[in-house]
Amino acid sequence: MATVPKVSQEYSDARRRQILDGARRAFAHHGYEGATVVRLEESVGLSRGAIFSYFGSKWNLFYALAEEDQHRVAELWLEEGFTAVLRWVLDQRPEWIGVYLEVHRQLRTNQSLREQWMRRSPDVNERLRAHVREQQERGELRDDLSPDDIGRFLGLIIDGLVLNASVGAEYDLEALLKLIVAAIGPQ
Amino acid sequence: MATVPKVSQEYSDARRRQILDGARRAFAHHGYEGATVVRLEESVGLSRGAIFSYFGSKWNLFYALAEEDQHRVAELWLEEGFTAVLRWVLDQRPEWIGVYLEVHRQLRTNQSLREQWMRRSPDVNERLRAHVREQQERGELRDDLSPDDIGRFLGLIIDGLVLNASVGAEYDLEALLKLIVAAIGPQ
To answer: Can you give the pTM of this predicted structure?
Structure first.
């Protein structure tokens, strides 16, 4: 009986990486809708068969990129503070940020996608919540509001910056940081 | 020589109103792209000839609605305060808010539209700037930042709420208002 050749984990990881990087370029360049299968193939350098054997669908591919971003943002937040997160958002290419807005529209009209999206990365959210709670206990953040209230506020600011960044508007961080510190710092 | 019959100002204002209201419904229901000429005709109850004799193009029609919103928001801000603005955003139908996101994507890829958009309503912006300056002089707002810094911050929060509202996410205003007051109030 013939055995199915098994690719090494290393090979498989490298292919995954190649697909994600290529897809990110294709989405940033053509938008989510505009990134057709042919364009994804060109940008990734692999056939549709290979791409979709790793990620199942175009949506899953985008979702994996969004999860990567979310983990990156959470790590920055935990390790370097919220300022690093703001800088990261401002450093992104407007084209890539714009893909999030495009996808937002799909979330708005597709209930099951939206539920999947809202439930993503509960572990990351729990770590951020614990981080805010610790900062409150150390007296670095105001403690008359819940960690969720503070987290939602910072999330709102990130969303606002995303909307600005998507049209290439520049933003001076210095004044913004003063305002944020006054908002969430000890009162 | 025949004279062209002249419609009264009153008639003309009523038609303009009818077109704007119908177009708003059509955009909210079908999105900007999805609001075809046929759907605009149905929703407005007038022919394309009548509609475009008042507004020239679909973009101009949307632009007029966006200007209406901006004037409404500015009036609320000047007369009832920023809290009223936040409530207004949260009261909008997610479908209508979503149209702004759709249009944002067009602004991103079309330089001349973007420039027109950025320059819109300079008079309104000047009135808001003067309003913030007066509040700073009365000691109601911090005065170590410029009115533009404070205005941009509040604009960022509105943009963040817009992004949230477009997917129908609910937002509790109470904690948000405490955070905003701490951010922009006297330090």
So the answer is: 0.83
Residues of A contacting chain B (CB within 8 angstroms): 31, 94, 98, 101-102, 104-105, 107-108, 114, 142, 144-146, 149-150, 152-153, 155-164, 166-168, 171-172, 175-176, 178-180, 182-184, 187
Q: For position A34, which CATH number holds?
A: 1.10.10.60
Question: How close B42 gets to chain A, by Cα (Å)?
Answer: 22
Contact A159 B164 (CB under 8 A): yes
Q: What backbone phi and psi angles, to 5 degrees, belong to B167?
A: -105, 15
ipTM tops 0.90: no
Indicate which of A30, A110, A113, A163 best probes the interface with B, i.e. most B CBs within 10 Å of its own CB: A163
B1 occurs within a structural domain: no
* Burial (CB count within 10 angstroms: exposed 0-12, middle 13-18, buried 19+), residue B176: buried
Same domain, A82 and A35: no
Nearest Cα residue in chain A from B106? A167
Profile chain B (187 residues) by mean pLDDT over runs of 10 residues.
Answer: 70 95 94 93 96 94 90 90 90 82 76 80 86 95 95 90 79 91 94
Regions of chain A where pLDDT drops below 70: 1-5
Whether residue A82 is found in the same domain as residue A133: yes
User: The dihedral of CA A118, A119, A123, A129: what is its sign?
Assistant: positive
What are the residues whose beta carbons fall under 8 Å from the beta carbon of A2, sequence distance 6 or more?
Answer: none
pLDDT at position B4: 59
Q: How high is the pLDDT of residue A119?
A: 79
- Closest-approach residue (CA) in chain A for B29: A109
3-state secondary structure labels for all residues of A9-27: HHHHHHHHHHHHHHHHHHH
